[in-house]
Each structure stands twice: as C-alpha cells, then as structure tokens.
Amino acid sequence: MNSPRRKELLLHPNGEHEHAFAPIAPPQPQAFMVENVPSQEYPDEEKTGLTAYQDARELVRLVQCPQCSRPYSAPVTLPCGHTVCRGCLPPPTTRANISYPNTPDRLLGISCPLSSCRAEHAAAECSIDVTLSKLMELIEIEVAKHIQLIQDAPMLLEEILQWDDSLPMQEQEKVDMKGASKVLYGGRLASTYTMASMGDLRRGSEVAYKALAGAVDIYQDLDNALLERLRDVAQKELDCLVCYNMMLDPTTTSCGHTFCRRCLVRVMDHSSICPMCRKGLHTPASLQNKPGNAILNALLDGLCPDLVAARQRAVDAEEQGGDDELDTPLFVCTLSLPTMPTFLHVFEPRYRLMMRRCVEGNRQFGMVMYNRTSTPQGDMGSTQFLEYGTLLEIVNLELLRDGRSFVETRGIGRFKIRAHGMLDGYHVGRVERVEDVSLAEEGALEQSETSMAKEFAERYQQDNPDLPLPIDAAINQLSTQELLDNCMTFVRSMRDASAPWLSARIVSVYGEPPADPAVFPYWFASVVPIAEEEKYALLKTTRVRERLKIVYSWIRRIRGQRCANILQMTLGNALFNMALAVRR
Ligand SMILES: [Zn+2]
Ligand SMILES: [Zn+2]
Ligand SMILES: [Zn+2]
Ligand SMILES: [Zn+2]
C-alpha cells in the first residue's frame, strides 16, 4: 500500500498536502455537478486531448461496446472499422451469392449489428482484435490497481439517459425513466469505468457526479493520476510493429493485427502475409478503401492527440519530400501486367543507364506503352506514353560485353502517372498506385450484381419467353467463380485443340492458368493473341469482376470468330462442291 506510486498519486499539484494521510471529511450535501459537457464545446481542448476529470464519461465511452455497453471483452474489429465484443456478434449464417475469394471461411457471413453499417461481413474477417484485447486487459488491471489503492473518495453516480432520435418511440419513452445510480470509489474515471463494467451504464447515457467526501481537487488528482497511467499503457501498446512508432491511422487486418495504414500498405506491396502472424491475407489487399480501426483511432485522438499530430506532421513532411520527386523511372515500350514476367532486350544507351541505376537502387521501374494515337492522358494532356502502367521488378539481368542487356522482370503492381519529366534522356514520373476495392466492396458488388441480374432474367423470360436473355444480363448472373470457371473451360478447350498461343513453350514462360480470379485475367492477357491496346483496359480496373468480364468478352469474341471461320470453311466447301457438280 505504501508504494511510492501512491504518494505520487495523491500529491496535490502544488505539493501542499498529501491527501492520502489527511482525514477524510464527512459527506457534505453538495449541489449535483453535471459538468461533463460534451467535449466539442471546448474546441481548443481538442488539441490537448480529453481531460481525466471533465471528460471521464467520454473517456469511458471510448471503450464501451456499442452492443452491450460494457467495456470490450474479446473485442472483434469488423471490416467496417467498428468494434464489438465477440459475444455480441450474431451467429454466422451462410452467405448467398458470394464466390470470391472462394475459400470455405468466407462462405459464412456475420450481419453487422451496428445500425450505421448493417452490412454482411465475411466471418473470416471477424477475428479478435489483438491490440485492443491486450489494451483492454491492461486498462482493467490499471483500474483495478487504482481502486484497490484508493478505497476512499466515495462518489454518487447517476446515469442520465439520453434522448436518441434514432430509437423507436417505445425505446425513447424509457429515457424518461431514471437511470441507475451507484456509490463508487476511486474518482470519476475509475468509478465510471466500474459502473460500465457492472452493466449499469448505457453507452449513450451521460453521468451526473456527486462527490460524497473531500474537496474537488482530491477527485481531480485521482482522475489525473489514473489517466496518466492509462496514457502510458496505451502509448506502449499502440506502437506499430512495422515502424516502431506510434500507430498512425491504425488499420486492422482480417487476422486481427493492427499496423499504421501506410506501414501495412508498404508491407502488402511485396507480400501477402501478415507481418505479425504470417497468416495469408487475401490479396490484392486494397487499403486505400479499407476503413481504419475506429476505436483505436478514437483512443489515440482522445489520449494523446499531441503525439498523433506530431506523428502526422512528420509523415507529411516525409511524404512531401518525396511527393514532388519524379522518382519512378519509366520505360516506354510495351504492355506489362502484374504478377507476369516481361523480358526486355535493352540496347538504347539511355535505357542502359536507367537499368544500371535500377539495379543499384531498388531494382524497380515502371513500364508504360506508347501513346500511338496521341490520345490525351488525363491531366497530363497528350503524352508520348499512356498514363497507366505496371511497376516491374528486375529478377535477372544479363549484361552482354557490348553493354546491351537481357532483363527478366516481373510485374508487381499497377500505377497511374501523376507527373512526369526527363532524366538523362529517359522519362521519369511520380506515380500513384492503382489498387482494387476492398474485399467487402467486391463482395457487395458480386451480391448486388448477380441478384439484380437474376431478378431481371426472371421478369424478362416471363415477358419474352421466346427470346434469348440479353448477353449483359446473362453475364451478370454469373458468380465471380462461375466467370472464372467458364474462362478456365475455354482455356482447356483451346489447349485440347492445340491452339498455338497455348503451346507448351508459352505455358512454361507464363505458368499454368492461376486459380485466383484476381490474377487470372493478367495471365490470360499475357498469352492471348489480341491487341495490346485492348489488354491495356485491365490496368485501369479496380474490381476483380470487372477484369474477369473483360476477359470473358474477349473469349466470347474468339469463340464467335472460330464459329464464323468454321462456317466460312463449310460454306466454302459447299460452294466448291456445287461448282464441281455444275462443271460435271
Ligand atoms: Zn459493420
Ligand atoms: Zn459487447
Ligand atoms: Zn507503422
Ligand atoms: Zn496477423
């Protein structure tokens, strides 16, 4: 009990008294102190974060589950960025009309209990939030220690239920009812937390506090001391394990691990496994569109906004430095595709120089196609090259004696050029990554597109029983997996027919067709003999379905041409036979 911490805890800021050893005055009748005005009325306080005494209610609300109102227990951060206890999630149900990614753990869905979301999340993406779980454990320990230390400082807490327009009428009537009231110890912060733990404080409610003993500053000191401890704990736990800095815009993976958004983006750039647990994360993990972890963000903003702001400034400065830089060398030559190899014979002196610099640097450069028709390229106007390209990594470089080289590369991602210039004769650019939408959005698209197409097809066939279904509706009815299956069937039939573009040699270069619908279109485009300008469309897509549908349209055309060819041949033969007959 006589730990130095306790003295420090209870020392008055100006060091005049040590309240711990002063007799506690008998309870005084006091006016109700309803001082916890919502923090937005103190705009200048936002910079310094929430204060322990004034914002005790707000602070506790940060860790109250929106479902059960208790402090989070086994918290799960959902793909929408919101968090609920695992026990507060409804049981999973089978998801309809979802086929990508086609893994068993994504076939179950959990309908989001939050009224602001209500989406159906893949069960595979609803794991325990490891960081928040640990943090909740530590918060609980700190609060327990604090209360154990301070058995005095009694306080009456009265729950004030709030009017909530979003609730139905019957629910709102309850608001007139009196909330819970409790006498608890340890200051506002600790007692509010305790009240929430007991299940007697709804997340939306406010609290009226009445100190039952001693002066206000005793309570304030208690709150400040506890908040100080909680800040320490949070700062330690909210360090990113990629950059070892405080997390900036914490973003949680489907395995429940959290990193700065930009750290996760950087890691996912060249890997598809979680840097913590090495679990495979479905790629391409689009992160621009993934909601951040709302609770961890709110905790950081509430507890240490000064540190958040400093970190943001540092990152902005770092990115600003690189922002104006045209730091991606551009090779204007051919169409390259993500995950696929590109082989180059480099003989022009400017590109020899570029290759040498790349090999000495990060081994990466951008591949872009010639703008043969001088079509304007967005804000850049009519450039020599097209604005979308593929970032390539040098896998192997064979330097010949005369300075030429053979370079083997692999596509690692797509980009759009934002600005460009020249460096020693070759083009350089500032590029922005092109990424797919989040899996959640992809799933929602598949669901809505297929179900709408099915409804349309039913109505159409009722009204026009003799007509075939319009082709777009027929395609939209197909699940993402069915689209892929159809493409695969076509590939098999072409191989069986010994199509020269699927020769053993080609397959040895590009590999067998990938079973991942996100990647398959790149493979197909690498082998199929159609114009590069058409394949270029794939670089702009941000949805897996969209890419597959482009490939599907090529396949339909090839099939159509083959039919036409066969028809022409048959017709030709018939005419020839007729001609022969006539001559006889
Ligand atoms: Zn949700
Ligand atoms: Zn809960
Ligand atoms: Zn980080
Ligand atoms: Zn992980």
UniProtKB/TrEMBL annotation:
SMART domains: LON, RING. Residues 65-114, 240-278 form the RING-type domain. One of its GO terms (molecular function) is ubiquitin protein ligase activity. InterPro entries: Lon_prtase_N (IPR003111), Lon_prtase_N_sf (IPR046336), PUA-like_sf (IPR015947), Znf-RING_euk (IPR027370), Znf_RING (IPR001841), Znf_RING/FYVE/PHD (IPR013083), Znf_RING_CS (IPR017907). Pfam families: LON_substr_bdg, zf-C3HC4_2, zf-RING_UBOX. The keyword Zinc applies. CDD domains: RING-HC_LONFs_rpt2. Keywords: Metal-binding, Zinc, Zinc-finger. Residues 325-559 form the Lon N-terminal domain. SUPFAM superfamilies: PUA domain-like, RING/U-box. PANTHER family: LON PEPTIDASE N-TERMINAL DOMAIN AND RING FINGER PROTEIN C14F5.10C (PTHR23327:SF42), RING FINGER PROTEIN 127 (PTHR23327). This is Uncharacterized protein. The lineage of its organism: Eukaryota, Fungi, Dikarya, Ascomycota, Pezizomycotina.
